[in-house]
Write a structure and sequence with these properties.
The chain is of the alpha/beta class and 523 residues long. The protein has helices at residues 30-43, 57-69, 83-93, 109-116, 120-137, 153-166, 182-195, 215-224, 246-255, 257-260, 271-282, 303-311, 339-348, 355-371, 377-390, 434-446, 490-510; strands at 11-14, 47-51, 74-79, 99-106, 140-146, 170-175, 203-208, 229-232, 331-333, 375-376, 397-404, 412-418, 424-430, 451-459, 468-476, 479-487. The chain folds into 4 domains: 11-282, Alpha-Beta Barrel (TIM Barrel), CATH 3.20.20.70; 297-323, no CATH class; 331-390, no CATH class; 394-510, 2-Layer Sandwich (Double Stranded RNA Binding Domain). Bound molecules: 3-methyl-2-oxobutanoic acid and zinc ion.
Amino acid sequence: MTPQRDDDRVLIFDTTLRDGEQSPGISLNAQEKLEIAQQLARLGVDIIEAGFPVSSPGDFEAVQTIARHVQGPVIAGLARTAAGDIQTAFEAVRDAARPRIHTFIATSDIHIEHKLRTTRADVVAQARAAVSHARELVEDVEFSTEDGFRSDRAFQAEVIAAAIEAGASTINIPDTVGYATPEEYAGMFVTLYELVPALRDVVVSVHCHDDLGLAVANSVAGLAVGARQVECAINGIGERAGNTSLEEVVMLLATRRDRLGLSTGIVTREIARTSRLVSRLTGYAVPPNKAIVGRNAFAHEAGIHQDGVLKERSTYEIMDATTIGLDSNSLVLGKHSGRHALAQALADMGIEVSGQALNVAFKRFKEIADKKKQVTALDLEALVADEVRDADADGLTLVAFHVESSSERPPHARVTLRTSAGEELQGSFTGDGPIDAIFHAINAATGVDAALVEFRIGAVTAGQDALGETSVVLEVGGVSGAGQGVSTDIIEAAARAYVRALSTVMRRRAEPTPIEAQPAVLP
Ligand code: KIV
Ligand code: ZN
């Protein structure tokens, strides 16, 4: 069933794992997607678009895993209008308590002529057939007019009317290429409500891209004229310049409720943690000045501002940092804390870890507690995310490494890796610096000549003893992949990130051709 709504309640449709995951270089495995989906459920999103099941076996597995394990939100799978797409999406989401099939077809003449190479009449027929097919399988069907904003309104109205007649209960009208201004996007909905009176009986949805920096403004303009579902992604990730940022649209509705009169079911205290998790697992850093979740979003630099805030917070602050959970960096555990205290601290943070996973987390915690005076919630979060990455059994893992360097000789690194089949691989290399040496030693061990595209180092918390967090993007034969690593030792963090990025690239190279590269499939 489509989630029910009050008149002012906006449904949050999170597409971090589908449109967001289409960002270049992002390739999450099923375990990582499940972890993000569980956090999205804690955040209180109404619908999780878990992926595009027909696009690859990996995506199918991830959507199915999420459908089977994540409680609360509706779980949606994307499908083109082809019968095979719809059936595959159904197989992936069918075990969810509340499954949704989201099917789409382009309605702009540019797309119909050049991409689909078909006719308007065929598009109407495909839309009708796809929605009818999906409705035979599930009750909750969403239909989208891709490139909706650049479509001829009368024709778009005809397609939407056909989809509603066939049983779609949510109609999503995207600005796929991020071209609209807020007035134009709102105007499109006003026209469509006039042309298709049945739109008043379904949930109308906005889906905007940020090519001109207007995704949030356009989404809110659509909500202001009657749409009640917003499709968005954590940290605004997505195709090209990205999607509407979930945290921005939610905090805009919350902060300016006086003006907009709309609300969401989001547990805003989970926003900061969700943003960190997505950034960590995707390898996409959050810019320091990003609204809501950037490092500086609540920082005051200028003396006049600091003085004002000290006297009265509202002089320069329109939101309270605690509202989005930015106060979670308080000390939680000390050096002598035991396994039970660790499990309890993690549970308090909403992270359930038990059995072997708890043993591994405890071992890592002790290593960190030996080196760090204070272990904070942020440290624990980073550590658990780091462990989840190695739970992916089909990748390589770093078993041991050693780097020798002296003032007379350039650094020499030796590494031992383990494959998923249990085989040990060894390699060594003398490099320009310790990180260069270890990266090349990993290439030598695997026999893969990976090229380093991006390498970033950050710190989980402030202070000299902070945990180091690294992110690596690699490319092999035109296929790229990202990996992250966390450790008190920056060389170890870098090596972990490199090994994981290499595993991602190797897994992606072994997968069938991604869907974007295939010709359009017509039913
Ligand atoms: O941007 C878009 O048009 C999409 C559709 C598939 C909903 O992502
Ligand atoms: Zn999109």
